[in-house]
Specification:
Keywords: Leucine-rich repeat, Repeat. This protein has 13 helices and 18 strands. It is α/β, with parallel strands linked by helices. Strand 4, helix 3 and strand 5 form a beta-alpha-beta unit.
Length: 434
């Protein structure tokens, strides 16, 4: 066989193990995984037939079929005693879940785009007491509605809860999940959340039955280590700072929120890293020790340049500033008595690497220059025209940051380099306007 390359040339390929794979797939009794997506399945069929055909099945994908009755789902699961993962996405499931039997072998349930609400989830939880992963994407959920309490109980084995692509708007709804003792991963991407707070730190806004929520032996979200809140409406720094109060939160996604989008007035990656003391993975990228150190130093210098004469404002708006300044041994930058003009100038210079990546210009050797931190983006563009001799091309500048999948566009000609967090050792890409 062959495939076509990017240049439309034929590239020969050889299928290895084809006969072995076909032979294995033909032995239904040995199958452990099967996908029957979009095949018009509507019922379990004759009793005993499934068990006789695929008795060892562990994973079953029934996405996009004609199933709606939970009794049929129960019949299928009963026939598969080894079943661990069940995917029912894009089946419009009935809201009547009464009479479901105990299915204590099911560990992963995927109910994306099935139209069920949280009340049905509550009714289902007694049938799947050992569920570890529950996916509820795209079900138009607006809130968490426990049946017998103001907070969610049960789900004693649940480690991952996926509520992405719903309509949840208030953090109070999410707090109803805070007593799930084994919950490690909570996916809330693409909802409508605008504010995040931790119960211990918000005395003015108490959740329902806060005495029940804040038990002495268990802190809210005690084991949560991964929180994905990308694509929401978060724009307040207090929401970022409050994430430090979660006991074990290490993996955070904030992308596509106003606070994390420099194009919408948000801050670059290094500011988020500096404000989040414990984060190890930010927006899907690992935060290395080197990146953390560089980010924290850049952040301290940025704050010093903005709020140098207002310590009260710094304390209020930048809770970690004093801690980071002391930790990294950064002194206040004050000119010595009698210092000359050139000495003052040299103390404020930063070393940056300019790398030309404009396709129409061709390959250029990267340049390292020392410039005042107060240099504006507009001024740097003019300098780049001289450095790279590109008078005929209008340059466009990007800040390349370690760990960030995409460089940050420096789109304000009046802003200084320090405003964008450009510091010693930074790399700026020089592109051309389209």
């Amino acid at each position: 066989m062959y495939v076509l390359s990017a240049s439309n040339k034929r590239v020969s390929i050889e299928l290895l193990g084809k006969d072995k794979i076909q032979n294995k797939l033909s032995q239904f009794e040995e199958l452990t995984s099967a996908s029957l997506a979009y095949l018009g399945v509507s019922s379990a069929g004759p009793p005993g037939h499934i068990n006789m055909t695929i008795p060892r099945l562990k994973e079953l994908d029934l996405t996009g079929n004609l199933l709606s009755d939970w009794r049929e789902i129960a019949a299928i699961c009963k026939e598969l005693p080894a079943l661990v993962t069940l995917n029912l996405s894009y089946n419009i499931m009935s809201h009547d879940i009464s009479g479901m039997p105990l299915l204590n072998h099911i560990k992963v349930v995927v109910l994306n785009h099935t139209g069920i609400g949280w009340k049905q989830v509550e009714m289902l939880k007694d049938s799947i007491p050992l569920v570890e992963e529950l996916h509820l994407m795209g079900n138009k959920l607006r809130g968490i509605t426990p049946l017998s309490s103001d907070i969610v109980h049960g789900f004693d084995s649940l480690r991952l809860l996926n509520l992405e692509n719903n309509f949840i708007a208030t953090w109070d709804e999410i707090l109803k999940l805070s007593q799930l003792k084994r919950l490690e991963q909570l996916f809330l991407n693409n909802n409508c959340i605008s504010h995040i707070w931790y119960p211990d730190d918000n005395p003015l806004s108490e959740p329902p039955n806060s005495h029940e929520l804040l038990g002495e032996s268990f802190r809210p979200f005690q084991n949560l280590c991964c929180l994905l809140v990308g694509g929401n409406k978060i724009e307040d720094f207090s929401c970022i700072d409050t994430l430090n109060l979660f006991p074990n939160l290490l993996d955070i996604r904030l992308s596509e929120n106003p606070i994390a989008d420099p194009r919408k007035g948000g801050v670059p990656r290094f500011v988020l890293i500096a404000r989040l003391a414990k984060v190890e993975i930010l927006n899907g990228s690992q935060v290395s020790p080197r990146e953390r150190k560089d980010s924290e130093i850049r952040y301290v210098r940025l704050v010093m340049s903005k709020c140098q004469d207002n310590p009260e404002e710094i304390k209020k708006l930048h809770p970690r500033f004093a801690e980071l300044k002391k930790f990294h041994g950064i002194e206040d930058e004050k000119a010595a008595t009698g210092a000359t003009g050139p000495q003052k100038m040299s103390s404020s210079l930063i070393s940056i690497t300019l790398k030309c990546v404009a396709a129409s210009i061709g390959e250029k050797v990267p340049l390292t220059k020392k410039l005042p931190a107060t240099t504006t983006v507009g001024k740097l563009k003019l300098l780049c025209e001289c450095f790279f001799k590109i008078k005929s091309v209008k340059p466009k500048l990007f800040l390349q940051e370690e760990g960030s999948p995409l460089p940050t566009l420096l789109d304000d000609d009046m802003a200084s380099l320090v405003d964008f967090g450009v510091g010693n050792g930074s790399t700026i890409l020089v592109e051309e306007e389209c």
